[in-house]
Structures are given as C-alpha cells and as structure tokens.
C-alpha cells in the first residue's frame, strides 16, 4: 500500500514540530510545505515550499496539517475541504463559533476526516489518568483543577489566553471525565497592553455536577501545566510538562490525635507516582490521525468536539465581560 501524501501549512513554532514528526511518520510521506513567509526555520529539508494552500493542494495531498494563525483557520480549512483533503487543524478550531461551525460542517459534508490539534489529550499522564478514572480507581469524581501559566508568548497576537491556552483545559477536562461543561463563571484581566485578555480564572460545572476550576495566564515567570482530579478515593495530579501522574490516596489509618483530626477532612494515605510509558504526544496525535484517514480505529479530537470547545471558550469570555454565570446550552 502506498504511503499517504501529507502536506503542512504554517511553518512557525508548532509547524516546525509538525514537520519533524510528519517527516518520520511511518506510512506517510511529507511531500510539500507552505507558508507565505517562506521557510524561515529550514524545516522543508529539500521539499517544495509553497506560498498558499492552493499551491499545496496542487501537490496532490491525501491530508494536511494546518498550523497557521487562528484567524486563517477558516480560510485554509474550507479550501482543503473543498479540495477533498483530510485535515488536522491546530487548536482552537477557529477564532469564533460561526467560523468553527462552518469548518466542521464543510468537512462533514464532504465525508472527510477532520481533527483538531488538542495535543494535551495525548499526554501520557492524562491518558493514564483517564484510563484509571474509567476503571473506577478514584471513585466518584468531585472536582477538577487545572493551572496553565507561564511567560508571555510574543508570537501569539490574534487571540487571547482563553482561546490559545484555556482551550487545552476545556478539552482535556471534558475528555478525561467524559462529561460536557454545563456552566462557567469567569474573570479576566488585561495587563500586557494588548487587545485580548492575558489572564483568566474560571469556575465551572460539568453535566454530572463535577466542579471545575481553571487558572490560566501569560503573566507568570513560572511555567506550570498541572491537572488535579479529586474524587472519593483520593487525588490524581497530572503534570503534563513532565508527563508524571501521581496518586494521593485517602488514608485508611484512623487519626486518634484530636487536635489534628479536628481540622482535617480525609486523612493522608499512600502517595504513588506511576511508572508510565512516555511517548511524544505530538507523534501519538499524528499516528491517530493517520490511522483515522486510513479507516483504522483511532482516537482523534473531532471537529465537532473542537467546535464545542470554542463554544465553552466564548462562554468564558462572555461571562467575564458580563459578570454573570453562563449556561453552555444557552450559548451555543
């Protein structure tokens, strides 16, 4: 069977990583790349470098990875769908709900495989956490907390921290728990002098009543990527920077010291950091998308799921702008 012919448009920071993985992906040939600004980082490695998605399509593609700025996702995505090219588009799917809906509909109408690059789903720590939750190792889930903060990325100019970073937490929270967001209440701040928000704090609820809390900013010298899941049997802490998953068990030893017992909820039990395999998330993401294009069983972030994430992101922004709690079912 001939290898799939893949293309890549957008040769910035993420584009460089996509090119590296696609160039070494089994069953795939990266045949051409495109960027209006050229190949400034030298990722083409002798392959043709085009200026536009139309030129890239003319190279004869089976599928394409899209890593252009968010404001161009709709233009590029619709062109690929019209040409019958499967595509994986970097997150978020689009800059607003209407654009995301048009992209998702275009791929569905053409019967194409469309996916969104929410890479955190493929982080080994979160993959393991979801599997363990499905097996009931934490019992009923009570709360999910995410913290995603770090220095300001000068390369991001077309969206704020909600659509650039918080979309990771929206998607991973829904995916790990297999529950949709029901409502959100948020506050934002603008501290860097730009049009878009650079800090957000969100309290949310999922359809099963799980409480969520998300802290996201571009204003911290500390880079942090942490997901904390608390349930009836203890807590999982997933550090997606190191791909470590740690379990803090509720204790089974009765506390007899009254002065300690009176201010503690559950008692402290064993702490276990799991030894888990740590493949590169981006490679796993591409392997799954390749398999989906080939009609094999695969776990991809569908465009419908990507659309839902954009809906929740916009609800967060509306909540911050209005000072109200937003019900997601009324926002979509």
Quick structural overview:
This protein has 332 residues and is an alpha/beta fold.
Description:
With 332 residues, this protein is α/β, with parallel strands linked by helices. It has two domains: 4-119 and 282-302, NAD(P)-binding Rossmann-like Domain (Rossmann fold, 3-Layer(aba) Sandwich), CATH 3.40.50.720; 121-277 and 311-330, 2-Layer Sandwich (Dihydrodipicolinate Reductase, domain 2). It contains nine helices and 15 strands. It has helices spanning 13-23, 53-57, 73-82, 97-109, 124-134, 161-177, 258-261, 281-293, 303-322, and strands spanning 4-9, 28-34, 49-50, 63-66, 86-90, 114-117, 141-149, 181-189, 199-206, 211-217, 224-231, 234-239, 244-250, 268-273, 326-327. The strands form two sheets. Strands 14-13-12-11-7-10-9-8-15 form a nine-stranded mixed sheet. It has a six-stranded parallel sheet with strand order 3-2-1-4-5-6, with helices on both faces. Helix 3 packs parallel to helix 4 (97-109) and helix 5 (124-134) runs parallel beside helix 6 (161-177). The protein is globular. The model has no long low-confidence stretch (mean pLDDT 93). Residues 130-327 form the Gfo/Idh/MocA-like oxidoreductase C-terminal domain. Belongs to the Gfo/Idh/MocA family. InterPro entries: Gfo/Idh/MocA-like_OxRdtase_C, Gfo/Idh/MocA-like_OxRdtase_N, Gfo/Idh/MocA_Oxidoreductases, NAD(P)-bd_dom_sf. This is Dehydrogenase. Pfam families: GFO_IDH_MocA, GFO_IDH_MocA_C.
């Amino acid at each position: 069977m001939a290898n799939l012919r893949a293309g890549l448009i957008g040769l910035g920071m993420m584009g460089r990583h996509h090119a590296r993985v696609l160039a070494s992906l089994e069953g795939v040939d990266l045949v051409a790349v495109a960027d209006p600004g050229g190949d400034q980082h030298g990722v083409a490695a002798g392959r043709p470098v085009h200026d536009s998605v139309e030129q890239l399509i003319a190279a004869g593609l089976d599928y394409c990875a899209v890593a252009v700025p968010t404001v161009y996702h709709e233009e590029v995505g619709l062109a690929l769908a019209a040409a019958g090219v499967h595509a994986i588009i970097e997150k978020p799917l689009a800059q607003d709900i209407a654009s995301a809906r048009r992209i998702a509909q275009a791929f569905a109408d053409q019967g194409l495989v469309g996916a969104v690059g929410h890479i955190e789903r493929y982080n080994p720590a979160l993959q393991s956490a979801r599997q363990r939750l499905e097996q009931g190792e934490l019992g009923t889930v009570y709360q999910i907390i995410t913290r995603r903060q770090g220095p300001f990325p000068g390369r991001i100019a077309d969206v704020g921290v909600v659509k650039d970073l918080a979309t990771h937490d929206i998607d991973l929270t829904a995916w790990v728990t297999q529950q949709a967001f029901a409502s959100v209440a948020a506050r934002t701040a603008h501290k860097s002098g730009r049009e878009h928000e650079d800090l957000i704090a969100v309290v949310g609820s999922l359809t099963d009543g799980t409480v969520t809390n998300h802290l996201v900013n571009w204003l911290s010298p500390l880079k942090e990527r942490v997901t904390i899941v608390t349930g009836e049997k203890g807590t999982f802490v997933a550090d997606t920077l190191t791909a470590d998953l740690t379990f803090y068990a509720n204790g089974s030893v009765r506390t007899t010291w009254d002065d300690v017992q009176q201010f503690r909820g559950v008692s402290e039990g064993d702490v276990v950091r799991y030894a888990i395999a740590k493949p590169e998330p981006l490679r796993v993401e591409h392997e799954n998308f390749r398999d989906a294009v080939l009609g094999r069983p695969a776990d991809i972030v569908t465009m419908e799921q990507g659309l839902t994430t954009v809906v929740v992101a916009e609800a967060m922004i509306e909540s911050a702008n209005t000072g109200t709690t937003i019900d997601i079912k009324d926002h979509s």
